[in-house]
Amino acid sequence: MSLFARKNIDELQADAFSEGEHSLKRELGPLNLVSLGIGAIIGTGIFVLTGTAAAQHAGPAIVLAFVFAGIACVFAGLCYAEFASMIPIAGSAYTYGYATLGELIAWIIGWDLILEYLFGAATVAAGWSGYVNSFLKDLGVILPPYLTNPAGELVQAPGSDTWVRKTEELTQSLAAQGVSIDSLPQANGGFNIIAALGIFAVTVLLVTGIKESARFNNFAVAIKLAVVAAFILAGGYYVLTHWGQSMDHWTPFIPQSTGPGAFGFNGIIAAGGVIFFAYIGFDAVSTTAQEARNPQRDMPIGILGSLIICTILYILVSGIMTGIVEYPRLNVGEPIAVAIDATGYTWLAPWIKVGAIAGLSSVMLVMLMSQPRIFYTMSRDGLLPPVFSRLHPRFRTPHISSALVGLVCAFLAGYYDVSELGHLVSIGTLLAFSIVCAGVWYLRVKEPNRPRPFKTPFVPLFPILGILSCVYLMTGLPRIAWERLFLWLAIGLAIYFLYGRRHSVVQRTHHQAHVDTPPRPTYTDEK
After folding, report:
1. Labelling 141: which of 231, 263, 292, 517 has CA 20 to 30 A away?
2. Mean pLDDT score of the chain, rounded to an integer?
3. CA 74 to CA 470: how far, in whole Å?
4. Are 284 and 221 a contacting pair, CB within 8 Å?
5. What are the φ/ψ torsions at residue 153 (nearest 5 degrees)?
6. Taking Cα atoms as reference points, which of 47, 55, 42, 122 lies closest to residue 353?
7. What is the DSSP letter of 155?
8. pLDDT (tens digit, 9 = 90+) per residue, 109-128?
9. What is the pTM of this model?
10. What whole-number distance in Å separates Cα of residue 258 and Cα of residue 271?
11. In angstroms, what CA-CA distances link 326 with 49, 246, 333, 442?
12. Do 324 and 343 touch, CB atoms closer than 8 A?
């Protein structure tokens, strides 16, 4: 059996438009798809990781990190748009890899996407809990730190009542400000119950149906965009009226390097890698291709539209935030709230927190929506057990896999720190994007005349640039992220060879075709 057996693209296209009890409902239009993309992209990147990436890696040059990550995403997004319009079926990069590079590569992508979405949703939930906990404090509800933080040592951030994880990076950052970390209040985390409950609530919503989930997402995205716009307007006005102070905060724009991944140009690349997983929204859009009403037209709109809008917003927010507050003070779970408090516009702070809660809720929803659909497709291909492709008889959603994903994700969100999860998600996302770019290039060479409703321009230049930029951002991530990635892939390969390869529908089809093909006659010279 061939490890690189490919799916037939014509059969995939036929299956994409089939109707029946085992088919997903086609309910999503172009606005829904753009909204889903924004729902996944605008979230932890703006509301949480912008602050930590600036404080620990890039300083005010966090703006350049978003620019570089956005450029890498443009190349990958164009490749995604070509595949999504040509193969409009659930499964995203997994399906694209199966149709171009073969089963083994598809399995690696699919297993990698589990890392991307499962750990990504847990990362978002950890950030979401910070804003919920801060909002509860405003209402007078004080929860102990061991119920609102994962296991580990905690310190109270200077000038704040926020508890943050005690790390070597934080120790060095505070020392540079003349603050000894041992002089700060100490505590221990236990289990982040708020994050776990958030995942549970979103999972229940997802089981009830795609239309209901999309409506909730549209509502949450509207609130989120309104709050981000309010921050840009209010924060931008503050920066313009306090220009001298903002220039001081932006100087030096690229702080001098203090070590690998800590400031300097290398720090910008490290920050780009850290915040990159915030851009997986257009990948999430492609997982819903089988639920789009007109995927050939609408998928490119959803992918590229959400990418362009969000990149502009990221650059504006990060620039304004570092202009308002000195970047070392942004190493907290709710940096936008800290920035607004620094402006004196205290009336806006509660609304910022509400917007962050709504915004991060939509990110959790999109990520937890995407993961079961990856399982759904892999299960229908025989690479995972049939239970993962079972649909609810009434809601027509993959309810069992959604529930299992929700349980595992709730545990991860409650037990692990946001930075530990974020590095894993970023490196997995970058790997998946690189393979998609390679797939577009390969298929253009292999099947140049195949109809493509949307075509990536300047092939092979753009796919090559996509691969190089993604790999370059991967090099900026810490060694521990690479080690965990290789461990995760090793576990996945073991599952593939022990189960997936033996039950693969494509392998059985290829084997049967080989058996049914009569042997070619052989001829010998007769004397």
Report:
1. 231
2. 82
3. 11
4. no
5. -80, 140
6. 47
7. E
8. 888 888 778 888 888 888 78
9. 0.77
10. 14
11. 16, 9, 16, 47
12. yes
